[in-house]
Backbone:
């Protein structure tokens, strides 16, 4: 072990002295310091922090990965080419100890950079969130005290709704010290020429955005899908029924498989159809989505319904103002409570909070959705109401808070660290097999091919999402030589998307430990071990300068 540590320390020192590594390290430092402030999102707090998280983690992953790949490749390949490594292998050090020392040195250096950068990014995000919370709480507390002291009864009645909103937000986000401070405040002075009303509504809007940020980004939630039918089986039954009524001679058996797939897609696209109200039926026909195997949750655990709607057809990407309503039912479809109609725009995802009490002592819950498109139209819009469609992959989902943002963030960085270590394996393995230019080209090509494959094939991370969405079909499941080729690529190549879960962090999706263990065993160990063995075999065959040929 002393020999391995000595090789690791020597490798880390030589890596730090590399000019290319120093430049990459400088770029990483600049990017880490500037990204949290320079990246801008949309006009909302949640959108802004989503973009910041994605870009910050993505850029740090890319830069640290390139540094690890470069150093891992060039360091060992250069020593082999320069016949410097024979001074190590002439000592009682095995080939594996030599490789492991090199790997340990580069991986440790790279991971220190990664975790230091990630810790700074988390600190900046957490500090800014706390600054926003503190400012909102201070302004809201002072404004409510001022309103209580200076508004008359009629004014208090008029502003009762926004005042109640602020009271609810303060109860959720105010600390005990801040509550004690507000109790001691008296005689609040208004800013010059600003009334309580003029400051109240913008403050409520800002607090709503902050509440959305906490509910959708600064949390780790598990996604639960409704009980979807077997669309392929339904399609087969419909086609067989048609064959029985029209006669089998009218059907082409050679195209039966294609017809079943087309029918299944059509049924799936209409699985979440919500018919509108009509003149003959003022109350729209609801659609009930049943969820099973739900965990029992405590009262303070956030629970949401998430979905995306389309107007008329899922191919219509034009946003449309509409309105829907929710009703919760139990396993026997008995009502548990109703949510007032809510307005939204089609083509966009929305999340709505529901009472956690609905899941207490209950593992099955139904969500009934009503199409109130006729109520969601603007006054000057005389177009008739449309059918609303929820694609199977767009929900609805029930989202249950599982972990904190802190835990979810560092689980994501743990997976990124595995990716960086895997890049070191790629770099050191190719460095043992080939000369420096060839090793660099092959190691970079491996990553580029992996990225390209991930855009075509269903990676393990995508499969997890597909499994949640009920869509487990994979593009690579083809017959013949093409099928074998795609399966081989899928089972041997690795890309950043295989490990990275920054989209999960920014969207509030929980990263579970079983998934981390699966990625570690399947993608890191199983796919990295052949590369290590190949490098060790090349190390033995090249004799690493023991027999010097010049």
Residues:
């Amino acid at each position: 072990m002393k020999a391995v540590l000595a090789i690791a320390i020597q490798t880390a020192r030589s890596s730090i002295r590399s000019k290319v590594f120093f430049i990459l390290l400088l770029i990483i430092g600049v990017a880490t310091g500037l990204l949290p402030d320079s990246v801008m999102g949309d006009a909302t707090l949640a959108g802004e922090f989503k973009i910041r998280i994605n870009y910050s983690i993505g850029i740090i992953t890319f830069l640290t990965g390139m540094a690890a790949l470069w150093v891992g490749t060039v360091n060992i390949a250069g020593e082999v080419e320069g016949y410097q490594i024979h001074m190590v292998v002439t000592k009682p050090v095995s080939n594996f100890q030599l490789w492991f020392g090199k790997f340990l040195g580069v991986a440790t250096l790279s991971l220190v950079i990664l975790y230091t950068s990630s810790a700074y990014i988390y600190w900046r995000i957490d500090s800014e969130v706390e600054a926003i919370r503190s400012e909102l709480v201070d302004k809201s507390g002072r404004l409510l005290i001022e309103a209580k002291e200076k508004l008359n009864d009629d004014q208090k009645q008029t502003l009762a709704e926004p005042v109640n909103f602020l009271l609810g937000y303060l109860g959720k986000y105010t600390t005990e010290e801040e509550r004690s401070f507000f109790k001691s405040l008296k005689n609040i002075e208004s800013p010059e020429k600003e009334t309580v009303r003029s400051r109240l509504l913008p403050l409520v809007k800002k607090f709503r955005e902050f509440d959305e940020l906490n509910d959708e980004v600064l949390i780790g939630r598990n996604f639960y899908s409704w009980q979807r039918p077997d669309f392929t089986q339904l399609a087969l039954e419909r086609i067989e029924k048609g064959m029985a009524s029209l006669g089998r001679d009218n059907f082409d058996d050679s195209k039966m498989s294609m017809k079943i797939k087309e029918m299944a897609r059509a049924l799936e696209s209409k699985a979440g159809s919500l018919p509108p109200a009509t003149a003959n039926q003022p109350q729209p026909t609801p659609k009930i989505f049943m969820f099973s195997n739900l965990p029992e949750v405590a009262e303070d655990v956030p629970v949401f319904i998430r979905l995306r709607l389309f107007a008329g057809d899922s191919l219509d990407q034009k946003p449309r103002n509409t309105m829907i309503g929710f009703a919760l039912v139990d396993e026997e479809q008995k009502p548990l409570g109703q949510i007032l109609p809510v307005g939204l725009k089609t083509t966009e995802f929305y999340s709505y909070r529901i009472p956690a009490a609905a899941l207490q002592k209950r593992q099955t819950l139904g969500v009934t959705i009503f199409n109130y498109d006729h109520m969601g139209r603007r006054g000057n819009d005389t177009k008739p109401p449309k059918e609303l469609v929820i694609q199977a992959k767009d929900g609805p989902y029930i989202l249950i808070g599982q972990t904190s943002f802190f835990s979810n963030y560092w689980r994501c960085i743990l997976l990124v660290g595995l990716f960086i270590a895997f890049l070191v394996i790629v770099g050191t393995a190719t460095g043992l097999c080939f000369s420096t230019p060839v090793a660099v080209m092959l190691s970079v090509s491996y990553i580029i091919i992996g990225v390209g494959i991930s855009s075509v094939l269903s990676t393990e991370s995508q499969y997890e999402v597909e499994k949640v969405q009920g869509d487990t079909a994979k593009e690579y499941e083809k017959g013949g030589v093409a099928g074998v080729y795609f399966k081989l690529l899928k089972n041997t190549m690795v890309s950043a998307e295989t490990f990275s879960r920054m989209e999960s962090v920014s969207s509030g999706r929980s990263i579970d430990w079983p998934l981390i263990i699966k990625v570690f065993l399947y993608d890191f160990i199983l796919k990295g071990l052949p590369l290590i063995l190949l490098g060790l075999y090349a190390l033995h065959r090249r004799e690493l300068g023991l027999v010097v040929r010049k």
Observations:
- Confidence is low (pLDDT under 50) at residues 458-478, 544-548.
- The radius of gyration is 29 Å.
